[in-house]
Amino acid sequence: MEDVLPFLIGGLYAGGVYLVLHKSFVKLIIGLIILGYASNLMLFTISRITRGAPPLVPEGAEALVEPYADPLPQALVLTAIVIGFGIQAFAIVLIKVGYRIVATDNLDDLNTTDRLDD
Amino acid sequence: MLLVLLIPLLGGIFSLFFWMDVKRQKVVFLISTIAMTLAAINLMRSVLENEVITLQSGGWDAPFGISLVADYLSTFMVLLTGIMGLAVGIYSLGDMDRARMRFGFFPLMSFLLFSVSGAFLSGDIFNLYVWFEIMLISSFVLMALGNTKAQLEGAIKYVTLNIMASIFFLAGIGVLYGLTGTLNMADIALRINSVPDEGLITLAAVFFFIAFGVKSAVFPLFSWLPASYHTPPVAITAIFAALLTKVGVYAFIRFFTLIFTHESLFLDNLLIFTAATTMFIGVLGAAAQMEFRKILSVHIISQIGYLIMGLAIGTKLAITGVVYFIIHIVFVKTNLFLISGIVNRLKGSYELKKLGGVYHTYPFLALLFVISAFSLAGFPPLSGFWAKFALVKAGLVSDAYFLVLVALATGFLTLYSMSKIWNEVFWKKKPEDETNLEVETLKKERAGINRQVLLPVVAITVMSVGVAIWAEPIFYFAEMTAEQLLNPEIYIVNVLGVAQ
After folding, report:
1. Which chain B residues are within 8 Å of A28, Cβ to Cβ?
2. Which of B27, B51, B123, B246 is most buried (most C-beta within 10 Å)?
């Protein structure tokens, strides 16, 4: 598993960046979502994966016996997914309203606020 | 310490109960912000007695629970948050339009203050991430509130780049957790010394550098700021300018004095390069603009450069300068934005070309502007002079001549951009080419000065002059803060308990 996941994460990062660099609003959002997945997976992988060893203290023992899975990264990823979901929901609504009011699907057209003399 | 967090949270929730009743929302907001400021003053008093106060939430001892830590730096940032929230809140009572108030301006402001003070007090990197997200979502909504075309254009860029920053932040947390196996900042600071591979620490540092760099708008990552800051109503811009970028700077200071203290030529050079380019390019951008608020917005970037410069030099004197600079810049910058809002109320425009003659009609307003603008440019004896003096002296003492040169050039260009505003808005004669019809329509839109908008401006001006007059005690406090920051042992011992 640990040999496969880094490549998957790299692929997700690459795909996310590729999509964010597009001009379309929708691809921008999808790119951001994929980048979020990549980071979550990275957080999960980098804190070492242990399979099939729940962190439960066996009966009669005082403390955990190695090897056991670290529960904290899973909690972190879960929190990050929930937060990411909220942010993405907002971003999608923003893009929708933006599409309606600015009336373009081209990010390059969003330059009126950057102009020097308007 | 919990009070400074609970009060704005409860204030926000209570004003949600009065969703249709803007008047009650105003009352709730004012009461909760005043109470929060008082709680922050109280917290400051007890921190001055005890150096560092920690609160282990949920009763779990550090490093297992989430710690809230109030040291000198966090506490005065929280106090500034309260004061600025109050000042901008009072301003918005007189300036914010009804539509935006009805769509939850006051609850959002409360949540923003809540999350910003939470970010200052957090002692846990993942908790800090969560505070950042709360701050982001409330600032996203404030930015887009009102749905004008310009706001949405700015908001799309702001949202995109800040989501990217969060993604980098999360990746950095992953790397740091993988290296040290803990999330508590004090515990990380202890354990990071035993990590064998310094390259990986630098990697984690670069992740955080990008994340905080976007939030605080340093050189290659600032492009969301000039695109978005001038689009929402001026009260929202003012509170953003006062707090949001400073949270990024706070995170920079915290991480690079507590966690990433190892010798790394790459990081040192990165900080110096960022500081110099941020200062200079920010001020060049400001000098090129021809719109009141755009000049001020772009100019925020160059001020961030000064703060990073102090961090890059890293001596006690430099950090002292940074602390004083933060106090100075929060007051002055917010004030300039609020004054630009008043000018807009009087003249119906932010364009320098359309403005003029304010000095003749409103000399008092011109005086307020001059104090803030010259303070920003660093005229003695105003606060900007002392802030820059400390930083430049720190640079000279530690032979950072290049940074000092850039800082002085930036100061000069700041003077140029401020005097441009002065000439165009206050000094020059009113443009004659306004046709009568335009004047008539303008008169209807012009809102005039009322007490709510003038009071905070006068109050902040008085406070920023006070920062200059009582420079010595404030420098004394800044020095204590710097000493605490440069001796992370104090922080670590207080968070983890004396036994460690």
Report:
1. 160
2. B123
For chain A, the first-to-last Cα distance in angstroms comes to 55
Cβ of A41 under 8 Å from any chain B Cβ?
A: no
pLDDT tens for the 500 residues of chain B, in order: 777 788 888 888 888 887 777 788 888 888 888 888 888 888 888 888 888 888 887 777 777 888 888 888 899 899 999 999 988 888 888 777 777 777 888 888 888 999 999 999 988 899 999 999 999 999 988 888 877 888 888 888 888 899 999 999 999 999 888 888 888 888 888 888 888 888 888 888 999 999 999 988 888 888 888 888 888 888 888 899 888 889 999 999 999 888 888 777 888 888 889 999 998 888 888 888 888 888 888 888 988 988 998 888 888 889 999 999 999 999 988 988 888 888 887 777 777 777 777 777 777 888 888 888 888 888 878 888 888 888 888 889 888 888 888 888 888 888 888 888 888 887 777 666 554 445 555 555 556 667 777 888 888 888 888 888 888 888 888 888 888 888 888 888 888 876 44
Distance, CA of B472 to CA of B476 (rounded, Å): 6
Distance, CA of A90 to CA of A85 (rounded, Å): 9
Whether residue A23 lies within 8 A of chain B, CB to CB, comes out as no
CATH class in words for A5-52+68-109: mainly alpha
All residues of chain A having their beta carbon less than 8 Å from the beta carbon of residue B207 are none
Distance separating alpha carbons of residues B474 and B339, to the nearest angstrom: 26
Distances (CA, A) of B345 to B239, B241, B433, B434: 18, 20, 20, 17
Q: What are phi and psi of B20, to 5 degrees?
A: -90, -5
Find out whether B156 and A95 touch, Cβ atoms under 8 Å: yes
Strand B53-57 relative to strand B66-70, pairing: antiparallel
Interface check for A108 against chain B (CB to CB < 8 A): the answer is no
CA angle B396, B397, B400 (to 5 degrees): 50
pTM score, whole prediction: 0.90
A76 vs B157: CB contact, 8 Å cut-off? no
- Looking up tokens 């042992």 gives B489
Out of A38, A86, A112, name the one closest to residue B137 (CB): A86
